[in-house]
Amino acid sequence: MKEIIRKEVEKVLHPAVELRHRLHEIPEGSFCEEKTANLIIEELHKIGLSAEKRIARTGIITVIHGKRPGNVVALRADMDAIAIDEHTSKPYASLHKGFSHGCGHDGHIVCVLKAAQVLFTLREYLAGAVKIIFQPAEEIGSGAKAMIEEGALDNPSPSAIIALHSWTYLGCGIVASKPGIVTAINDHFLVTLKGKGGHGARPQECINPIVCASRIVQKVNDLMKEGMSLNNVDSQYVISIGKIHGGTQANVIPDDAALEGTIRSKNIESRENIMDIFKKAVRDICIQESVEAVIEFRKYCPSVNNHPVLYELFEKVADDLLPSGTWQRLADSSMGSEDFGFYTQKIPGLLIRLGMGESSPPLHTSSFDFCDDALGAGITILAGMAMKASERDFAI
What we know:
Layout: H1 2-24, H2 34-47, E1 60-65, E2 68-78, H3 105-121, E3 127-135, H4 143-149, E4 160-167, E5 175-177, E6 180-181, E7 185-194, E8 198-199, H5 209-228, E9 237-246, E10 252-253, E11 256-265, H6 268-289, E12 292-301, E13 305-306, H7 308-321, E14 327-329, H8 341-346, E15 349-355, H9 375-389
Parallel strand pairs: 2-3, 2-4, 4-15, 5-14
Antiparallel strand pairs: 1-3, 5-15, 6-13, 7-11, 7-12, 8-10, 9-11
Helix pairs in contact: 1-3, 1-9, 2-3, 3-9, 5-6, 7-9
């Protein structure tokens, strides 16, 4: 069977690269993946699969039915891009100014689409069913929750769900995973500061919220260093500020300023602890500066918790289908987040890392591009996991 899977993967590799480049040219923001969704539907129709009506605005679901009784397993790909310009000079670089596939979702889509093609071709050997889920808005941490709320895990209900994600800390085409927690909890915060504006020539008559904001930025930097230096890895945390706004003119002190960022933690206890520390630090600085503060936690993304039985299956499938030395067990979890965690709160799941090359530019940068040479490994591991997990005798 493994030779049959390998041959089918080999057949789809060249068109997979071409399709990945087409998707790379049309990056779209969260919940706005219209061109992307249309291209996915077009490709599903070419395979011979029908696409259910869109859910969560641009989300797409289709189901591949095997010829034998078995389990229902889901494969999930995220579709959205990040809001930064691309600077790669590739011939297939982004045609959409202000957006790029700097997180590799174009590659994720292709890995799942081509795994679906392999599974559909081999449906005579397939047990149960494989549910294929294309999800919007992973980058803002909202897409998985919206898909679940609109029935992505219903009719048929999968007993397990599998996804992969680009990873720049592994050689190109290396797949890796681990049991248990693999990503961090992510809380998105907004701090709004209210001061007293006035003329830039008379700051003594004002309460400058920008001064207060700058002190908060420095304090957050100190807290971040403390969080990463903790000896207990499970207690470590990261706080980062990615957006700051205040003022409209150089010679005017504004009334208001605002800070946005994220707090990332590895478990509920450390999450509650650092959120309390963060809120107290902000309030203490605001009292000292006579500034009013409103602290809002606007979004929450749970950690991804890999099921140990699915991880055991990953090792067996990778050993069976991939060349020697092309899979690894991850040593530790990441401080990055993935809204795939909403799925693993509901059903057993597994997130697999797919290596982009150790010299690859980092994710979420204008110079990142998915490694085409990793597509074969991504397609293979997804198709193989789906075939094994859908077998009637596989139980979690």
